[in-house]
Amino acid sequence: MEIRDIIFSVVMVVSSFVLTYEWLGRFKYSPANALIILAAMVMVGALAAMILSVDMRLRKLDNMLEAKERSLRINVQSVENTLDSRVHEVLLRMDDVIEALDRTRYR
């Protein structure tokens, strides 16, 4: 979690406080102002926490996918090297066999 994410969450909560306080002040509805304002702040705080949680999960998944891609790339390269060496061995054997057949044919 980055510091800017925390700052944005705090700004969300503070702005919900100001918005709710000013909005309720326009209607002169003062008996339950504190409870309504607190509820709005908790709701926006929970929303900010949920967004941060989703962001952390997405970053974790991204890191896991990068690690799997890296290991897959290494495995493919290993298989490619093994296959290349085996094909090279087979080609050498085929060249030897062809040379032996050419020698026996010209005798």
Distance between the termini: 80 Å
Give the biggest beta sheet: none
Shape: rod-shaped
Oligomer: single chain
Mean pLDDT: 87
Poorly predicted sequence stretches spanning 5 or more consecutive residues: none
Rg, Cα atoms, Å? 35 Å
Helical content class: over 70%
Order of helices and strands: HH
Strand percentage lies at under 5%
Structural class estimated from helices and strands: mainly alpha
Number of strands: 0
- The number of helical elements comes to 2
Key phrases:
107 residues; mainly alpha; rod-shaped
What can you see in these coordinates?
With 107 residues, the protein is mainly alpha-helical. It is 92% helix and 0% strand. The protein contains 2 helices and no strands. It has helices at 3-26, 33-106. Helix 1 runs antiparallel to helix 2. The longest helix is centred in the middle third of the chain and has 74 residues, at 33-106. The protein is rod-shaped. The termini are far apart. The model has no long low-confidence stretch (mean pLDDT 87).
